[in-house]
Design a protein that fits this description.
Helix content: 55-70%
Largest sheet: none
Structural class: mainly alpha
Number of strands: 0
Radius of gyration: 45 Å
Shape: elongated
Distance between the termini: 132 Å
Order of helices and strands: HHHHHHH
Length: about 140
């Protein structure tokens, strides 16, 4: 430690570099003179497309996601409820298929009750429409 203090006392705190006089007072004016002059151009007004394109891109992204989900849903073999209901209704039109549907377990209790109501309604309507000779 003694050696360090001797070195510092020998060299001193003066680094040997000095700032020229009035350097900082003239700095801004000298810098402005040395830079090339540039023309200031007006910022163009954004077009309708520039304002709307973010929303268009976002809508396209969501449409793509929707199509992708629809495709994966179709590939997985699952059916939407409307198609399933149409298939059940078509199967119930043929009385021979009713037992098959019930055995598969694809039919809910509500479907069975609705089917029974429709069968009774059709039977009563067909009996009312039938000629009296056929009923006797």
């Amino acid at each position: 430690m003694n050696k360090d203090s001797d070195i510092l006392s020998k060299l001193g705190k003066d680094s040997g570099f000095k700032v020229p006089e009035n350097y900082f007072s003239d700095f801004a004016s000298k810098m402005a003179e040395s830079l090339p002059e540039q023309e200031i151009t007006a910022v163009p007004k954004p077009t309708m497309w520039h304002r709307v394109r973010t929303y268009v891109y976002m809508a396209a992204m969501f449409a793509g996601i929707w199509c992708m989900m629809k495709m994966f849903n179709n590939l997985s073999g699952s059916q939407n409820s409307t198609t399933r209901e149409q298939n059940i209704t078509a199967g119930f039109q043929n009385k021979d298929n009713v037992d098959d549907f019930m055995l598969q377990g694809d039919v809910s209790e509500y479907d069975i009750l609705t089917y029974q109501d429709s069968v009774y309604a059709q039977d009563s309507a067909s009996a009312a429409d039938a000629p009296e000779e056929a009923v006797k």
